[in-house]
Amino acid sequence: MILSMTGYGKAVAELPGKKVYVEIKSLNSKSLDLAVKMPTAYREKEMEMRAELAAMLVRGKVDVMIWIEKNGAGTGAINAEAFKAYCEQIGNLSKELSLPLPTDWFQTVLRLPEVLNATDSGQLDDDEWRAVHEAVRRAADELTSFRRQEGVALEAKFREKVANISSYLAAVEPYEKERVQRIRQRIEDALDKALDVDYDKNRLEQELIYYIEKLDINEEKQRLTNHLRYFIDTLEGDAGQGKKLGFIAQEMGREINTLGSKSNHAEMQNLVVRMKDELEQIKEQVLNVM
């Protein structure tokens, strides 16, 4: 089963006097690109948290946001300098933009960053970190669940596109014999018109066989069929196969391109164009697979 690299998870830790919010977002990336923004009080746990998230999330551009929202119930000291600076900025903006001043200055400003400082010794409380750590795990689990759901949708899309390519490949077969006959007839007609002398029919037959063999596409068809089967088998394997699926898609593209260069037939070339269109959609979506 495949997983998408796209995901979102959020969790909240309820603590005395405050709530700690954890938000994790993930997008596609060639490797794990983990960015963390967290309050200063939790910085001592950052490396530990990074290692744990790296093991859980494996790959993707992952943004982790942790922030605190205080509800006024806890004890703390007001940072007077920060409070005054915010009041001054709000007053200036009120005049500049002709906006009304807050009706409750204290409730408005106390919610702003760095205004209300904890009065403890600055050491991280073990119980608090356990609650925050659990919230981080819940957010990561929610993100993984999101990735799994996206993976199911991606797998369905891949199966549809592979089936379409297989269908177009099967539709090539009726045109193969017709193509050989057309090529033979075109060459003979050209020789009859261009040459006024007799030519060796046996030698011409040998040359035609050699030329037509160069245009034979049976090997390309067989290899493309094998690649399509291998792609589906990989989808059904373990998670974390995004890069492998990308490599298989590249090999599929090589065989389809060779089919196009050898087709020498309008209907066959139309089918090759359709195969290329389906494959491009596969390649775009493979970038989202973990």
Class computed from helices, strands and strand pairing: alpha+beta
Q: How would you state the average pLDDT, rounded?
A: 86
Which band does the percent of strand residues land in? 5-15%
Largest sheet: 4 strands, mixed
Strand order of the largest sheet: 1-2-4-3
Q: Nearest-angstrom radius of gyration?
A: 33 Å
Report how far apart the termini are.
11 Å
Give the proportion of residues in helices: 55-70%
Uncertain residue segments: none
Order of helices and strands: EEEHEEHHEHHHHH
3D shape: elongated
Total helix count? 8
Strand elements, count: 6
Quickly describe the structure.
This protein has 290 residues and is α+β, with helices and mostly antiparallel strands. The protein has helices spanning 46-57, 80-97, 105-110, 126-194, 201-214, 218-235, 242-263, 266-286; strands at residues 7-15, 18-27, 32-37, 60-70, 77-78, 116-117.
Describe this structure as you would to a colleague:
By secondary structure, the protein is an alpha+beta fold. It has eight helices and six strands, in the order βββαββααβααααα. The chain has a domain at 77-117. Helices cover 62% and strands 14% of the residues. Strands 1-2-4-3 form a four-stranded mixed beta sheet. Strand 3 (32-37), helix 1 and strand 4 form a beta-alpha-beta unit.
Topology:
Elements: E1 7-15, E2 18-27, E3 32-37, H1 46-57, E4 60-70, E5 77-78, H2 80-97, H3 105-110, E6 116-117, H4 126-194, H5 201-214, H6 218-235, H7 242-263, H8 266-286
Parallel strand pairs: 3-4
Antiparallel strand pairs: 1-2, 2-4, 5-6
